[in-house]
Amino acid sequence: MRRPGRGQAWRRRALLMGLVVGSLVVLVRGFQLQVIEGGRWAARALGQHQEKMVLPAPRGTIYDRNGIPLAVSREVVRVSVAPRELRDRAAVAQRLREVLGLSAAAAARATDPARRWVVLPGRHDASVRPRLEGEPGIYLERVVERSYPHGDVALELIGRVSADGQALGGLELEFDSLLSGRPGAAVARRDARGRSIPGSRVTVVDPVAGRDLVLTLDVHLQEIAEGALRHAIEETDAAGGDLVLADPQTGEILAAVSRRGSAVRSWRAVTEPYEPGSTLKPFLVSALLAEGRAELSDSIFAEEGRYVRGGRTIEDSHPYGWLTLRDALRLSSNIAMAKVAHRLEPEEQYAYLRDFGFGTPTGITYPSEAAGVLRRPDQWSGYSQSSLAIGYEIGVTPLQMVMAYGALANGGVLMEPHLVREVRSRGGRTLFRSEPQPVRRVVPAEVARAVSAVLVDVVEAGTGQAADLGVFRVAGKTGTARRYHAGRYGEGWYTASFAGFFPAADPQLTFLVKLDHPKGTYYGGTAAAPVTRATLAAALAARSTALDRRAVVAAAAESTAAAGPDERARRARAVLPHIETGATAPVAGPFIFAMDARPVEPFAGGASDDRRAVPDVRGLALRDAVRRLHRQGFQVRVEGSGTVRSTAPAAGRSAARGSVVRVRAGGGAS
Fold this sequence. Notes:
Elements: H1 6-36, H2 38-48, E1 50-55, E2 62-63, E3 69-81, H3 89-100, H4 104-110, E4 118-119, E5 124-125, H5 129-132, E6 138-147, H6 155-158, H7 170-174, H8 176-179, E7 184-189, E8 202-205, E9 212-215, H9 219-236, E10 240-246, E11 253-260, H10 281-290, E12 299-301, E13 306-309, E14 312-315, E15 322-324, H11 325-330, H12 334-340, H13 346-355, H14 384-389, H15 398-409, E16 413-415, E17 420-424, E18 430-433, E19 438-441, H16 445-461, E20 475-485, E21 488-502, E22 509-516, H17 524-541, H18 549-562, H19 565-573, E23 578-580, E24 592-594, E25 611-613, H20 622-631, E26 635-639, E27 644-648, E28 654-656, E29 660-665
Parallel strand pairs: 2-9, 26-29
Antiparallel strand pairs: 1-7, 2-3, 3-4, 3-5, 3-6, 7-8, 9-17, 10-11, 10-22, 12-15, 13-14, 16-19, 17-18, 20-21, 21-22, 23-24, 24-26, 25-28, 27-29
Helix pairs in contact: 3-4, 9-17, 10-16
């Protein structure tokens, strides 16, 4: 027997060595995988059978001052179908038709086995989840979306939220960190093919809902303001406009509307300065009185309507001779104001304008705000004092103007504006409450009262008579300013405005109406003042607003009683609503709006021999119906709120002028 050769022995040893080394490699690698990296690979294997999901947090609700929701988050469901996973396509198609309301053709396409994945259009109420959940091949995705119960009311202030929950502007953006909440997390099991197993989702971390905001806005005043401004823009064919209502005692913004030609809704009242024209004149008069440089009885020669100073011509719309300072403001004489402004030093004129809040941001909590334009005196020309006296060479925002008039209304104190009243937890606990914040005292209280009295004259016997509310006294000032257009002050381009407060004796509302480039009539007294009248009349007629109607009526009664017979007759001829309230509780309706052409006394009933048909106001908004019935000479008794359902007497029936028409309303906005 032959002994193996040396080469064969070497091969055996090499094979053995290879087996040993290979075994060691396998053992080392196994140790590495099982011991050293075991946790990582186990987690990876688990991850292949699990799906991590982000659970969006509901955004906080935004309410108006009375707790009416303006922006809310709601859970909806997005439905998808994997047709090849369906066990009974016909049954699933029928269920989709019943639960989601799909047409037969749409349900057939959704279950077509030729398609691998179908996302059904639209988002559905969360109530569909229990009716579809657990069905193989149907996948439900939870989505939290933003909805607006009152449509686009106050949208320029509230802002928008994108489909993926990102705040896009307005208060949604300003308070995003409070509203957005904290998202949660969930885990769902997947099968060997990587598909989610229906019903296997487990919530790991619950989402935390965002905090709620309570705004200073009054939704009823907001709707009134939006309707009044929209109507004014349509009537005057203006390029746009702004309307702001505020509480002069607290600085709270009660309503704010901005409209421009573009479809984009943004609050231009804080971002677009304009030259205000004559609405700036009361602040010059306030400065003169506060510094003791003039009295309201001082006389100024108005140059019969044309005045040349330093090569520059200043004109009035009407020729005036000698005017007292009171009449110069009442009649809005540019010449008298330009002349009397030089009784102040430039630094003094600048300081008062600055103290009234012009040329600096108001500090309102909103994503962006313009400071306006107010140049320092060392940058003024020889014309600047006269220009500023009549509202030029300055840029102000509508919000700044409203707050400045608020200082006149409340006795001389500039207030900081507020849009947010409270921040609340989801459980309703108040986390923050805003308080009125005085900025500074601008003028003494007696100066503010004196100027306010002149502003009442402006409405009752001056340029603002189109805003006269008869027994309800209004203080205000008109403004008509040329607009700087295409590099110059264009002929025919104007800004018409009217600013003031109501009621004059104990103001509850400060307001500004501004119309950009109105066609036809462009004066502030004829284009903007009627908008104020309509807004205030509608606010008095509304079932519920921030106005204390009892205080308004009491002030009107006291003022009327103190007036002489001629003045009472003048106020009555304004043909405006008078509210009769005999209850001792706060007025909440129903209530009567009386139109009376006689000197106003508490309404005692009775009807005239003048009979007319009751107009058909069914389907109209309540405030529009009230105005239409008033125009026909009827009093109105309101029951309910929203759109009008019926009247008594019925439409078309004959009724005496001055008699009461009962209006029953329900549903919709009032």
